[in-house]
Amino acid sequence: MAEAHQAVAFQFTITPEGIDLQLSYQALNQIYLSGVRSWKKRVSRMRNRVIKGVFPASPSSWLFVAIGILATMYMQSDPSMGLIAKIQQHLPLSLHVSLSAQGQTMVSALVFSTLLWLSLILALRFCLKLLLSYHQWMFEQHGRISNTTKVWVTLVRLFSSRKPLLYSYQTSLPHLPVPTIKDTLSRYLESVRPLLTDPEFERMTRLANQFESNLGNRLQRYLKLKALWATNYVSDWWEEYIYLRSRSPIMVNSNYYGMDFLYVTPTPVQAARAGNTITALLLYRRKVNREELKPSRVPGTVIPLCAAQCERMFNTTRTPGTETDVLQHWQDSEFVAVYHKGRFFRLWVYRAGRLLSPREIEYQIQKILDDPSPPLPGEEKLGALTAGDRIPWAQTRKQYFSSGVNKRSLDAIERAAFFITLDDEEQGMKGDDPAGNLDRYAKSLLHGKCYDSQLYTLATDAFQLGYTEDGHCKGEVERSLPHPQRLVWDIPSEVQTQALSSLAVAQALADDVDCHVFPFREFGKGRIKKCRISPDAFIQISLQLAYYRDRCGFCLTYEASMTRLFREGRTETVRSCSNESSAFIKALEAGEGEEKCRRLFRLASEKHQNLYRMAMTGAGIDRHLFCLYVVSKYLGVDSPFLKEVLSEPWRLSTSQTPVQQMELFDLKNHPDYISLGGGFGPVADDGYGVSYIIVGEDMINFHVSSKHSFSETDSHRFGAQISKALQDIMTLLSADTKTPSKGAAQSQSKKLL
């Protein structure tokens, strides 16, 4: 085994003549090379810390400051206004003894230069934070960019002229601001107005006013205190209470999935696809660790986004607990965990400090595929423990996986760079029923068999790494590679019983999910933009129309937006169902005049864009109310208003999947290399989950989910309603494509940026 081979560097026996020492030079060589690789990583991390620590300046700028100070002093001038002389007076006595007066002056000048340099860095960083705190550019109207914004654009470009590392901007990003109670409550009441009758709205207004005048201000003071102390007043509580403290299954309720290429299979050889995919992920991990990735930015601009979540993309596991789970992250891992036909393996992807070639990883994967050994008793469905409720898994883990062979095998899985499943069933569009196959593919990715895991691939495997003509990975193979290590378990009957119990819980949840995936090809963002409408606003209003037709009413709608303009920012909610969108839909369904409907649609579109911008710039509703609720629980006080707000169901949960890393794709020359994006399960038992991705100029892919157990929802029916709503609104707007829009907001701003 690989770890045994590296751990035993020498052997010895005791003989009558003394100790017979037998050195294993191959093992020692591997240990030496692994040590070299480890030290290289340490040096690289240290170097990156220095570069990040002085950003937006550079380490070499110290030399310019020092030379400038020394040159000025050489010209009989004192740029420090006496500070260098004071520093010289306070030098250690040893330096006074060992150095001449001129040497002491030079040392003092260098100390002053360093202090001045650090002060300039802090000043530059403060200026950059001020610049990144300016968000008015997002709200400026098309063709009416203010002089302030133009100057701001120039300054941001100036500060972005250096090539930053992945995390260079982190300390310069502003903190998420805490909105005022009055503004949040006002926006909340506006958001629920189209959902409530007049008496219901009056009652909710009274509750909000009582909250503002009594408990609200008290809770707000505690929240502001946290905002002064914490890097982000939302993120840690959101992660803990929304994710880690949930005791229900993670599968379906929390996870999401991503799909592979829609029309193309880069290779029919499963081991080869796995080889390139694993390599692609490891190369990406290397870039993350070395911070070689470019910082994410607002599309079309130079505005940086928070990259904090990149830190835990790999080598991270969620350890179960009875009250809350814990995220554990390891600095590095030289192996991946593999599951195939009920067996778990550890696959070493480095040898003597070298990343295995894609062909070598394919060779190792093929060994796993060819391994005829059956699963150990209870091993095949062992993964179901993680798919059921969290408390039984936490109790079972503590009792049966805290020592011995089970702990060693579980550690191998949890400490792996990532986990990959080798399916024994083909998924995708192929076959006589491509539409049905897509739906089954989505379910397979969302929950699998409830005891395995899924991994989707990147474009890197097809466009950068590539395959040979016969479908294999490129590169050479070192035939002496140690075999993948089969993990060993000792699974007592109690654990097997609990695994089957957890599997039953997970299977019931999985069977209840109704998934429907479909590509919409009638038009895409190209035609929508010709109507001078934001594609996202167009789709969101179409979803509102589809829901109104499907359920004969409006509902609280969740659209995920990001707050990564701020440090450690995550997400915020855009409440897409607005008074303006409701007015448009009612007018359209009542058959009112086209001109009036178009006017109402443009008002709804502009309103949605404004809501999205406010959410992005820290003026959202739901994260603020959530944190106020957490504070109330810590203080042990109840708020009828907050309790009701936090219990409102999101019957329509939506999210746009961003199209990232487009430099890896060449859709012009390879138009078939299109991904359908990904999706997630419904948030409410009686609602829909809708994910969409805008691909190219002429395609929008949708993922719709609901639950079979609620008789009034149907994912296929809702998918048909979405298609019809998109086409109906386009027909309405196409008759008036020459009408200018007041708010294609951001388009001009993006051109400037």
TrEMBL record:
Domain Carnitine O-palmitoyltransferase N-terminal: start-end pairs: 1-47
The record's subcellular location field reads: Membrane
> Which molecular-function annotations from GO does this UniProt entry contain?
carnitine O-palmitoyltransferase activity
The residues covered by the Choline/carnitine acyltransferase domain are 176-441, 474-723
Q: What is the lineage of its organism?
A: Eukaryota, Metazoa, Chordata, Craniata, Vertebrata
> What's the superkingdom here?
Eukaryota
Q: Name one GO biological process term.
A: carnitine metabolic process
**Transmembrane is among the record's keywords:** yes
Entry's Pfam families? Carn_acyltransf, CPT_N
Full protein name: Carnitine O-palmitoyltransferase 1, liver isoform
Q: Does the keyword ATP-binding apply?
A: no
